[in-house]
């Protein structure tokens, strides 16, 4: 059959992103440390942009350009930003724009996060020594104690042994009382639990941290102090009976205990460059005395910005004079106006970034408020998607994706990536909407309570989950079990 060419015509509606939208999208993606570098680079490139001094407020002016403001729809349609003369109109999305055009429009270049190759946890402990008012001898004792920590962060030698070793091997004349005092001081360092002689003391030190605020804290301390053996054997019912507390009080105490770190020194010998980079939270979340959620944005060392007064004066001086200007004055006017416009636009983008981040984080906190108000108990997490957050924040779901892609929030119980709060929806037999994370929690509870001499098979686990009102297939059980890092039944047998 002979081939032939056929020409057809089709009408199609597409969304085109301007350079301003591309620049804003890239700013949204940046975590706080990269934002600092981005702002510093912009200040180096544009001399009309400078750090706001002392009493002066950062400016939030609209760019002085000849283009009209135009409302945009689509991916970033929640913004009203001025258009710029650009070469990106032929590209359908930010990902399609070539890097050289992105750079020309003041967007962020792809770059690797710079990580110190020399910083480790020991350096952090030594740094904390410098925060204390210690004599030369006390400092020498403290450094020896830190050097005597094992891989888990424990100090398993007794005070008398430490005193003898310092005198014999390092010529440090230290009395037992001084060593004990320095040891107690070391146990107040971060991470909490450093310098404990065993796991029980490690958990007690963390519970006695004044920054840990929980109504279940006294109960958790009693469990560690008075019923540690039962705790290590997971005899929860016996502990609850001895304490004379309700099941809810017991569960609250266990939630506090499960958030503690049994190996606070696990990373002492690992360089920061050999592990994951240090996480800098982009948000801080806390509860006030009335239980209301408070959110603050971490701006790090990012400076407040303003437009240079000399450049603005130049624009005002030459504006409207037209033919009265010499050629050199016209060139100076055009240059100054462009720099001022770029500076004002960048300030506006940074301010819009802050507002968008607050809106998205506020929406996440509202949807997951039960989790934050119940001491970060994962069982209180509800199903949540990008669309859910986008609808509440009043932005497009792709904007939420950019905000949550590489950012973290710090709460009283830890630092979480924003992606942690998203999970798919699961419907129980009763019709209740649950998150897949809650199903995983239920599966772990079943496996933890099994007889290890006869562990449950995946088929039986599926049936037991159904009895709990969570009908999931055997294949899903295998998937969740592997995600939880739980081996199959044959390897759990003991």
Automatic annotation (TrEMBL):
UniProt-listed InterPro entries: Lambda_DNA-bd_dom_sf, RNA_pol_sigma_54, RNA_pol_sigma_54_core-bd, RNA_pol_sigma_54_DNA-bd, RpoN_core-bd_sf
Highest taxon of source: Bacteria
One Gene Ontology cellular component annotation held by this UniProt entry: DNA-directed RNA polymerase complex
Record-level Gene Ontology MF annotations: DNA binding; DNA-binding transcription activator activity; nucleotidyltransferase activity; sigma factor activity
Any one GO biological process: DNA-templated transcription initiation
PANTHER family: RNA POLYMERASE SIGMA-54 FACTOR
Protein name, per record: RNA polymerase sigma-54 factor
């Amino acid at each position: 059959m002979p081939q032939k060419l056929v020409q057809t015509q089709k009408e199609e509606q597409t969304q085109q992103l301007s350079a301003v939208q591309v620049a804003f999208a890239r700013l949204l993606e940046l975590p706080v440390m990269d934002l600092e570098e981005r702002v510093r680079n912009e200040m180096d490139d544009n001399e009309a942009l400078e750090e706001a001094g002392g009493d002066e407020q950062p400016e939030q002016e609209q760019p002085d350009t000849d283009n009209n403001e135009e409302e945009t729809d689509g991916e970033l349609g929640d913004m009203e930003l001025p258009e710029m003369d650009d070469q990106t109109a032929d590209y359908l999305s930010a990902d399609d724009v070539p890097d050289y055009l992105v750079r020309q429009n003041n967007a962020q270049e792809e770059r690797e996060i710079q990580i110190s190759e020399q910083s480790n946890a020991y350096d952090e402990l030594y740094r904390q020594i410098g925060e204390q008012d210690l004599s030369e001898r006390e400092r020498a004792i403290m450094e020896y104690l830190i050097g005597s920590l094992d891989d888990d962060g424990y100090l398993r030698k007794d005070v008398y042994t430490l005193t003898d070793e310092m005198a014999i091997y390092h010529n440090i004349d230290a009395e037992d009382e001084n060593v004990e005092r320095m040891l107690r001081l070391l146990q107040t360092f971060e991470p909490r639990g450093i310098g404990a002689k065993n796991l029980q003391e490690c958990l007690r030190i963390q519970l006695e941290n004044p920054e840990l605020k929980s109504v279940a804290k006294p109960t958790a301390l009693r469990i560690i102090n008075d019923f540690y053996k039962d705790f290590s054997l997971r005899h929860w019912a016996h502990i609850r009976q001895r304490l004379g507390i309700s099941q809810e009080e017991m569960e609250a105490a266990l939630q506090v205990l499960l958030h503690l770190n049994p190996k606070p020194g696990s990373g002492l010998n690992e360089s920061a460059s050999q592990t994951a980079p240090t996480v800098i939270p982009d948000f801080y979340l806390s509860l006030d005395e009335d239980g209301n959620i408070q959110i603050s944005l971490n701006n790090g060392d990012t400076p407040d910005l303003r437009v240079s007064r000399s450049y603005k004066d130049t624009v005002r001086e030459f504006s409207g004079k037209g033919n009265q200007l010499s050629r050199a004055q016209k060139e100076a006017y055009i240059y100054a106006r462009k720099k001022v416009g770029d500076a004002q636009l960048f300030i506006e983008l940074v301010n819009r970034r802050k507002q968008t981040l607050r809106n998205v984080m506020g929406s996440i906190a509202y949807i997951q408020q039960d989790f934050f108000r119940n001491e970060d108990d994962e069982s209180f997490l509800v199903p949540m998607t990008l669309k859910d957050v986008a609808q509440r924040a009043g932005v497009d779901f792709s904007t939420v994706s950019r905000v949550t892609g590489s950012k973290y929030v710090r709460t009283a119980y830890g630092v979480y990536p924003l992606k942690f709060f998203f999970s798919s929806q699961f419907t129980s037999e009763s019709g209740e909407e649950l998150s897949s994370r809650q199903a995983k929690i239920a599966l772990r509870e079943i496996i933890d309570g099994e007889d290890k001499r006869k562990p449950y098979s995946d088929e039986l686990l599926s049936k037991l989950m159904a009895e709990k009102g969570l009908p999931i297939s055997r294949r899903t059980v295998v998937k969740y079990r592997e995600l939880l890092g739980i081996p199959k039944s044959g390897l759990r047998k003991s």
